[in-house]
Amino acid sequence: MTHAARIAAQPPKAARLTKRLMKIAANMALKGFLDACAVFQGMCHNEPEHLEAVERLLASMKK
Q1: Greatest alpha-carbon span in the chain
Q2: pLDDT single digits (tens) 10-22
Q3: Helix, strand or coil, per DSSP, at residue 11
């Protein structure tokens, strides 16, 4: 349950894409899988949750 709670606390889009990657991993060659990971990561970079996390990280580095 602890692990499930951690997953549920993540941004919905990132969790959904991670689940999709886990499902397709067994049926893809490594190169194709890594390409899909890169595409999905790029899709998440423009999400508000990601941008807020980056801002928090940068602010903490300035202190």
Answers
A1: 46
A2: 899 999 999 999 9
A3: coil
> In whole angstroms, what is the distance from residue 19 CA to residue 36 CA?
12
Q: pLDDT tens-digit profile of 32-56? A: 999 999 999 999 998 999 999 999 9
Q: How many residues does the chain have?
A: 63
pTM of the shown model: 0.72
Taking the C-alpha atoms of 27, 36, 5 and 13 in order, what is their torsion angle to the nearest 10 degrees?
-130
- In this structure, is the dihedral angle defined by the CA atoms of residues 19, 24, 28 and 32, taken in order, positive or negative? negative
Amino acid found at 10? Q
* Cα R_g (the chain), whole angstroms: 14
Phi and psi torsions of 41, nearest 5°: -65, -45
